[in-house]
Design goal:
About 35% of the residues lie in helices and about 30% in strands. By secondary structure, the chain is an alpha+beta fold.
Length: about 180
């Protein structure tokens, strides 16, 4: 499990939002409070959130952007290609990170073990507070009229109140 971050993606009402907290921890110390773990790729058409080692996450983000260019922006194809390469390449498979990527028509969790997962209910979470944020988001989707961006922000605040590796410096991008 990747600690020290929380990334949440929600698709609701025809919109998709990805958000993350800003805390960076090393062992048991907080070293940064306002890190941005959400990035836009492909001229803003794809939003990506990452958990794990920052250096590994950025290396994989560059790979994903290359795969997106090779597939003319087809996120599913790019995700499958990245997951395959990540799992089989001798050097890449040592990289420790998870990512969530969304393009407005799909939201995917991509892992180094070859997983490309699209949620049944439009909610994905990764990182140490991911499960807390997912639970809160599912409750908000089912019981409120909030839009995807508001659900992500509120669910991340709930996770920040529970997970010691998650803070309330929330960044959310909508696609």
């Amino acid at each position: 499990m990747y600690r020290s971050t929380t990334i949440l993606c929600v698709t609701s009402g025809g919109r998709t939002a990805i958000g993350g907290d800003g805390q960076v921890s090393m062992n048991d110390a907080v070293v940064k409070n306002k890190a941005r773990k959400i990035r836009r790729l492909m001229d803003g058409k794809v939003v990506v959130g990452f958990a794990g080692s920052a250096a590994d996450a950025f290396a994989l983000m560059e790979r994903l952007e290359g795969k997106l260019k090779d597939s003319q922006g087809n996120l599913r194809k790019a995700a499958y290609e990245l997951a395959r390469e990540w799992r089989t390449d001798r050097i890449l498979r040592r990289l420790e990170a998870l990512r969530i990527a969304a393009d407005g028509s799909s939201a995917l969790l991509i892992s180094g073990s070859g997983d490309v997962i699209e949620p049944d209910d439009g909610v994905l979470g990764i990182g140490s507070g991911g499960n807390y944020a997912v639970a809160a988001a599912r409750a908000l989707v089912a019981n409120t009229e909030l839009d995807a961006k508001a659900i992500v922000a509120e669910a991340l605040h709930v996770a920040a109140g529970i997970c010691i590796h998650t803070n309330s410096e929330i960044y959310v991008e909508e696609i």
